[in-house]
Amino acid sequence: MPSADPLATIAAEVKRRRAVNRAVIAVAESFDDAERLHTMVAGDAILYHEHQDTEPRRKTYADLKAIEKQKGSYTLVTTGLALEGADLDASCVITTLCDPDSLILRAGRCNRRATSTDAEVLVVGDSLPSLTYINPTQFAAYASALRMNSGERFSSDTWKA
Q1: What is the mean pLDDT of the chain?
Q2: What is the pLDDT of residue 149?
Q3: Which domains, and CATH codes, for the chain?
Q4: Could you write out the three-class secondary structure of the chain?
Q5: Which of 124, 130, 157, 161 is nearest to 143 (CA)?
Q6: Is residue 27 within 8 Å of 96, Cβ to Cβ?
Q7: pLDDT at 111 over 60
Q8: Which of 59, 83, 150, 155 measures 20 to 30 Å from 110, CA to CA?
Q9: What is the pTM of this model?
């Protein structure tokens, strides 16, 4: 989903989807972007990132796991790095455009337990962060594949090779 301001688009999508989804995870690339996104989303959104002190981060994660165990709902704003180590199961993951490896990791937090029939991953933005390994030709192919697979069931096999 192209966007001039990916964080504003993600915030709007979170607000639209959190009323109908059990768990929504919004992912930003950096800590600063996650904080900005958390402010934009507001409400009861939980902020979880790698710069939190250890104990508060552990408590936040334990709280999220308890909510999931009770089949409750939550809205989480996080960074890609913090999400990598989290065994969470969202019905909707909304992320900024990222490299394919990171996208597979983020998508893996969506319907992780295969309990939802309408889970979705939304990718927002039209450029990659500057510190990526993808050259312009690879990026064009990647962006084309994302567009072609928009609205389709996600399969990590699509992104191998």
Answers
A1: 86
A2: 78
A3: 6-153 (3.40.50.300)
A4: CCCCCHHHHHHHHHHHHCCCCCEEEEEECCHHHHHHHHHHHCCCCEEECCCCCHHHHHHHHHHHHHHHHCCCCEEEEEEHHHHHCCCCCECEEEEECCCHHHHHHHHCCECCCCCCCCCEEEEECCCCCCCCCCCHHHHHHHHHHHHHCCCCCCCHHHHCC
A5: 124
A6: yes
A7: yes
A8: 59
A9: 0.87
Asked whether 99 and 119 are in contact (CB, 8 A), the reply is no
Query: Which tokens in the block code for residue 80?
Result: 């890609």
Residues in the chain: 161
Q: Distance of CA 23 to CAs 32, 53, 119, Å?
A: 23, 24, 10
Token readout for 48 is: 């979880």
